[in-house]
Amino acid sequence: ELSVSLLAVIVIVCGLALVAVFLFLFWKLCWVPWRNKTISSNLAVLQSEAACNKENMADKLKDTGAISFLEAAVKISHTSPDIPAEVQLSMKDHIMRRTRIQRQTTEPASSTRHISFKRHLPRQMHVSSMDYGMDVPAVAEQPTSIGRIKPELYKQKSVDSEDTKKEAAKTCGKINFTLKYDYENETLTVRILRAFDLPAKDFCGSSDPYVKIYLLPDRKRKFQTRVHRKTLNPTFDESFHFPVPHEELASRKLHLSVFDFDRFSRHDMIGEVILENLFEVSDLSRETSIWKDIQYATTESVDLGEIMFSLCYLPTAGRLTLTVIKCRNLKAMDITGYSDPYVKVSLLCDGRRLKKKKTTIKKNTLNPTYNEAIIFDIPPENMDQVSLLISVMDYDRVGHNEIIGVCRVGVNAEGLGRDHWNEMLAYPRKPIAHWHPLVEV
Q1: What local confidence, expressed as pLDDT, does residue 54 receive?
Q2: Sequence spans of domains, the chain
Q3: Which residue, 50, 125, 127, 223, could crosslink 213 as a Cys pair with Cβ 3.0–4.6 Å?
Q4: Does this entry carry the keyword Metal-binding (predicted)?
Q5: CB under 8 Å, gap of 24 or more: what pairs does 355-363 form?
């Protein structure tokens, strides 16, 4: 009986062992491959979502949930087994499709009025050649957008421009002069002593300076020092006398213009000094020495005024009509602070004056009104060879008349003068009127 019981136990144990072996083989052959396939599939989905999240990470930094999910996905991808090649290819195609769709929906569309402007811009961004790798970009390295403004660049530019202006103002130097008024003879004496630290205007690193002196608003009486060769610290020591009543001193201004002499071209202006209140420095009863900074200037700060006239051409009759309408804000040429202006129009052909005509004289005014027509007969075939020189003159009963300012119109003129002439030719038989600024001869 004992042996029979022992045999029955052995049989039962062997049967259980066989069942266990069968179950192990079944799990090994069926369950494990299916589980590995599921994990690989899940990993592919996680890798795809991680790639998409990494592309948008610069635009969604505030979304902490997305960042934590991305970190978890990256951590899983680092510890997961190798992904098959076909899964990587499908995953890359999926990422590229998602990226193209996302860029098409997020990139702002350009307006039609900017298309022509953008054609001139360099190709700064090639979307088709971008690298869609799986590397995670650093959060601190945000891509720079094309339209982003960098204030530091503009700030640096403005600082540079300010420094340039300050440097230009500093390099104009100083000038020393004295003022004294003779009450008995009613004469103001201006003595130009010296200039210091002038800027170099010549190629040799030097200048040939001289000084012009005005007592505004009178520009008829002008004085000028001698020219000093090749020096930046000239000593003039010259005196000039302006007859002026004592009661007018408060309204007069002393204007000093420093020039560099050039034998073969127009003289270069170094700078100017304008002393508006003569009694600011002293009572002028005794000689007073004054030092002033020379302010940077390219031309004498004198507003010569403007002239308004119309042009009209009749091609069938070959008649050009210039109507002088009025002037405004002319430069005062007399001691009284006014001028006696009239307008002289010269017809030029190849630099030679063919005809000249003039308006009437308007007395004691800086804003004269004329409304006078001046007519020239010019054949249509010669219109591209002629030009008009309009000169505003100051009439002087004693002496010669002085030019206040000029302007020129014609095919060979510059700026507004050429545009006005072309507009007249484009609209024949129609008067075309414009304001023209006066310039020096």
Answers
A1: 54
A2: 173-296, 305-438
A3: 223
A4: yes
A5: 358/393, 359/324, 361/395
